[in-house]
Amino acid sequence: MSGKKALLIIVVVASLILMTYQSKKGHFFSTGTGFSAILDTVHRAATILSGSLSRPYRMLVLREEENTALKKRLSELAMERDGYLDAVNENKRLRELLKFRENSRNFVAAARVIARGAGHWEHTLKLDKGRDDGIEKDMTVVTPRGLAGKIISASGSFSTMLWISDIKFSAAVRIKDSRKEGVLSGSGSRVCTLKYVPYEEEIKTGDVVVTSGLDSLFPAGIQVGYVSRVDNKGLGGNFQLIEVTPYQDPYKMEEVIIVR
Amino acid sequence: MSYLLWAVAIFAAFFFQERVTLLGVIPNLTLLPVYYAGIRYGESRGLLAGVLTGYLQDSMSHTLLGPNILSKAMTGFFSALFVSGRYFRWTVLLGICAVSAMTFAESMLVFFLRTIFDKMPMQFSEALFISVMQALINGAGGVLLRPENAD
Questions:
Q1: I need a surface site. Which of A13, A182, A219, B57 has the fewest CB within 10 A?
Q2: Hey, what domains does chain A have and what are their CATH numbers?
């Protein structure tokens, strides 16, 4: 057997042993934090740079398109209006965050989303605040719309959050009006699944789902989503098959709040 | 100097992978430097580049350590075996097909390993869609990434 093939076999066997060990004993502690921290710093710099570059670039493009001074002036005014509307929208979002922060007794930090996670199969987002701002693992991530996820790792200046739609996410929840309890789990797609609700319980489409606080992880009363599909025809085994659509679209998250 | 360039290339692959999406799919850009290391420098270096890149990706994903190490190591090894000219003469079409096939196989392997050793990360149909999209995106890399002895 050549040395190259032996090397491949060693790597394959070592990887399989590594994964088997972790599947029995639990995952290893993440060791790529140094590389990740550098990558996050570059992400933050790129976000700031692209933000500062995009505005003059848009102006330049518009100027090239306009031939007359009048059109140029009009385009500048249009751009100013766009900038104003952007500012108004941002102001509105930040006001909502501020209001939420004032109402939240457990506020820890407000953070911006700077990038998605590196993995293809995980639903994670990187935030620009970390342990230096008081963020710790397992803290709750919310937006003014509702529950967004939880913190799964935090370094000095950055942290990583898990969306509620990830397969590894679960939270104790209840139906807001009827107070029926269940466990919300991510499904890997945009909708979540409400588990362990027996057939006797009447669940209706449109019912609002909130956290119950019974898992000692998420504060009670945070809005999560609404029931978008109920299948009580026996497809879910001993329990009803209930789909919950989260209020917060993960693809539209820009700023989040971390609470404990 | 060459090691520095490789470090920059791998770093850039991670950086753009985390910033770019197409139809909601994160591209598998970290596979490209591994594939290139394989076709350019042979099985051993391809395999080692795969192990390193896979380790970084696994450790940054905060989940099971191993699927990307194994899949990327195999990508680096087999890209050298099939594309370097020993069995097939490199052409642009072969390059595109090889990168696409390697990307698809690598993504599905990670999906199956995570399913077996951890939890099924998503529905199979969604994983299939993501893998096909990643293969199509990476196919463009097959035009640019060619072995040293290519015409």
A1: A13
A2: 170-251 (2.40.10.350)
Is the domain defined by B2-11+25-144 classed in CATH 1.10.3470?
no
**B70 touching chain A per CB within 8 A:** yes
pLDDT at B140 over 90: no
HSE-up of residue A247 (Cα within 13 Å, Cβ side): 18
Chain-chain contact of A188 with B123 (C-beta, under 8 angstroms): yes
Query: Contact A15/B111, CB-based, under 8 Å?
Result: no
Residue A249 pLDDT: 83
pLDDT at A236 over 90: no
Q: Read off φ and ψ for residue B130, nearest 5 degrees.
A: -60, -45
Pick from A19, A33, A118: CB nearest B17: A118
CB–CB of B15 and A8 under 8 A? no
Return the domain boundaries, chain B: 2-11+25-144
Cβ neighbours of B53 in A, within 8 Å: none
How many CB pairs (< 8 A) connect A and B?
144
| Residues forming beta bridges with residue B84, ordered by sequence position | none
User: Does the complex come out with an ipTM higher than 0.85?
Assistant: no
Q: What is the mean pLDDT of chain B?
A: 86
pLDDT in tens, A134-175: 999 999 999 888 899 999 999 888 999 999 989 889 999 999
Question: Which phi and psi angles does A217 have, rounded to 5°?
Answer: -120, -50
B81 in contact with A, Cβ within 8 Å: no
Distance from CA of B109 to the nearest CA of A (A): 12
